[in-house]
Amino acid sequence: MSSKPTPRVLITPAAEATIDVLREEHGPLMFHQSGGCCDGSSPMCFTKGEFRIGGNDVWLGQIHGCDFFMSTSQFEYWQHTQLTVDVTKGRGASFSLEIPLGVRFLIRSRLFTEEESRNMAPVLEGEEYLAGQTQ
């Protein structure tokens, strides 16, 4: 078994390149996995702090220097899957920062293997994450 925890969220090089463009214009960024509002269940990119994180959110990790969150209720469904943030051409119907670029972020997912499941990266509840940010 690997000593490094299995990441819960990954990112493609194309999505990293889009983040680089957005970061240059907007500064630090964050993601929140939409729970069905606006653009279905797309990952939404915001300027860091623009989306208010609370006790009903879970921090899954970082992708390309950006914190990635989703709602606790949605995490109950997705906790057995590894998420990969990708980007595709086309406009989404959301408030995500990439929309004016003519692209949208999307999620690709797969189930964790049994070995990966035994070595999962920890998640933080929203309140735990926030408490760590103020220390």
TrEMBL record:
A Pfam family annotated for this UniProt entry: DUF779
Domain of life: Bacteria
InterPro entries with a match to the protein in the record: DUF779
Protein name per UniProt: UDP-glucose 4-epimerase
Lineage per the UniProt record: Bacteria, Pseudomonadati, Bacteroidota, Cytophagia, Cytophagales
